[in-house]
Amino acid sequence: MYPLVRMVKEVWVARGGDPLPLTATHVSHHRCWPWDLDIWFELNNGRALTLYDLGRIPLAMRTGLVGALRRNRWGLTMAGASVRYRRRIRAFQRIEMRSRAVTWDARFIYLEQSMWTTAGDCAGHVLYRSAVTGRDGIVPPATVLAAMGQETAPPPVPDWIAAWIAAEDARPWPPMQDDAALARGGAA
């Protein structure tokens, strides 16, 4: 089940927060509850991705993106993710989440988020490729920024993000076509 009550709390807190510049970091604090656990009694990997929403939506609010989305009847979607899990998060453990937009290109906004333990260890990190969508498909970030009153050039793309973008561009779509041919009895 989606953590609606937790999201309402984060939205409420973000409403009282100061506005953030486009690439500033939104910091939030969360707790791993028993219903967030997998069978090994640690934060479930899928649930971790859901919990990252609790940082992204308030970030979008504080930067003014949510206002532009509402005014223009646009949506926000995730178009890709690269995730690293490095430390276990156990039941009742408190975490700090950091969320920020890193850069953007002609189609996508690149966001990074991380979860930190109270001991100061990074437990996980995710890079997202996000898109604003409208009736005609993806809305270019330049158009979105203009609607936010933020007509600015994107920050330089860090090498590690550029390498991920290149890897995503080289990745076949649709995937597993050879596997589908083999399953039908054809040659790969």
UniProtKB/TrEMBL annotation:
Positions in coiled-coil regions: none
Record-linked Gene3D superfamilies: Hotdog Thioesterase
Organism: Rhodosalinus sediminis
Protein name: Thioesterase
Pfam families reported for this sequence: 4HBT_2
